[in-house]
Amino acid sequence: MAPRKKRLDPSIFHLPVDKMREGYYSDKYFVRARDLLRKDRHRPRVTMQVFGKSHAYLGGIDEAIAILKLCAERWDELVVHALYDGEEIQPWETVLLVEGPYDAFAVLETLYLGVLARRTRVGTNTHEVVQAAKPKEVMFFPARHDHWLVQTGDGYAAHIAGAIGVSTDAQASWWGSEGIGTVPHALIAAYNGDTVLASRKFADQSDPAIRLITLVDFDNDCVGTSLAVARALGDRLYGVRLDTSETLVDKSVIPQMGTFKPTGVNPQLVWNVRRALDAEGFKHVRIVVSGGFTVDKIRQFEEQGVPVDAYGVGSSLFQGRFDFTADVVMLEGKPSAKVGRSYRPNPRLERVT
């Protein structure tokens, strides 16, 4: 029976196979359990069942399979069934079954559980953000909030969940794309705080195919800066990005204060920028917002019809817990599980070849 979908090739993950196989990254008790079984020449054939306890969108399953394929003692000793990345899963639903001699894959449990937990958290949070923003674009910008080594897998989890763009080439590498971004505050500062000059330099020196999006809050005057950049760049300007600090009130908002929270990127600020751009004929210039955006904040903006074209979302995509658990539930084909953890077959699982 042909697989429903194509899985990522294990080579794409660049796993430290020798270290993983020896147990360098594994909880020590799994290493000792494997070593004991081998010394005792005891090779029981078990079925390991993996599940999560939260409603989620599965991530990391191809990476977990790669760990089993490349790091188990012998892949041909194992029979593996799994769901696919991006699939919606229910609490306690079996997402992965591994059958084979326990010593062949005992030390890999720490690794595949960690991968599933991490990628599912990122994928689920991104999915929720994407659904809240639909049909607006969501840009995945959390790279600066975590260790660089997690970028590739996190970027793929976000891509599967529907994020339109990621910020680094590493995040985009597993599906052959590249990072996107904006004219940053640091470049503006390097040109003495002149947003127009920095944007002009970016336009002159970069590939015309690159979408030019400029941060416009450097002087805390998003309306004035947006208009200045639009006048200078015309059609070359794809969009402006509002990223006002949550402790500041933008210059254009100050006269309007009194009936809403005026700090940071708020609906009134977006409307001020949109109306100003439209009034001068810059209706083509898109508005990207960032800075503290969560699912709830995006929903509020969408419910109010705020004229946002894209959302940049960062640290909120790492929130929450999506842990996974693995249990031996069968021994030599017969039930053998701790109380409360019996074998739960899942017809959605597919044999991994």
Number of domains: 2
Helix content range of the residues, please?
25-40%
**CATH C-level category of the largest domain:** Alpha Beta
Quaternary state, please?
A: single chain
Share in β-strands:
15-25%
Structural class, by secondary structure, is alpha/beta
Report on the structure:
This protein has 353 residues and is α/β, with parallel strands linked by helices. The protein folds into two domains: 10-120 and 320-351, Alpha-Beta Barrel (nicotinate phosphoribosyltransferase); 133-318, TIM Barrel, CATH 3.20.20.70. The protein has helices at residues 17-22, 28-39, 61-71, 102-105, 109-133, 151-161, 169-172, 185-190, 195-205, 222-233, 267-279, 295-303; strands at residues 45-52, 56-57, 79-82, 88-89, 94-101, 137-140, 165-166, 212-215, 237-242, 286-289, 310-313, 324-331, 334-335, 350-351. The strands form three sheets. A six-stranded antiparallel beta sheet has the order 13-12-1-5-3-14. A six-stranded parallel beta sheet has the order 7-6-11-10-9-8. Helix 3 (61-71) runs antiparallel to helix 5 and helix 5 crosses helix 6 (151-161). The protein is elongated, with a radius of gyration of 25 Å. The mean pLDDT is 94.
What can be said about this structure in brief?
With 353 residues, the chain is of the alpha/beta class. The chain is built from twelve helices and 14 strands.
What are the main properties of this structure?
14 strands, TIM Barrel, nicotinate phosphoribosyltransferase, alpha/beta, 6-stranded antiparallel β-sheet
Outline the secondary-structure elements:
Layout: H1 17-22, H2 28-39, E1 45-52, E2 56-57, H3 61-71, E3 79-82, E4 88-89, E5 94-101, H4 102-105, H5 109-133, E6 137-140, H6 151-161, E7 165-166, H7 169-172, H8 185-190, H9 195-205, E8 212-215, H10 222-233, E9 237-242, H11 267-279, E10 286-289, H12 295-303, E11 310-313, E12 324-331, E13 334-335, E14 350-351
Parallel strand pairs: 6-7, 6-11, 8-9, 9-10, 10-11
Antiparallel strand pairs: 1-5, 1-12, 2-4, 3-5, 3-14, 12-13
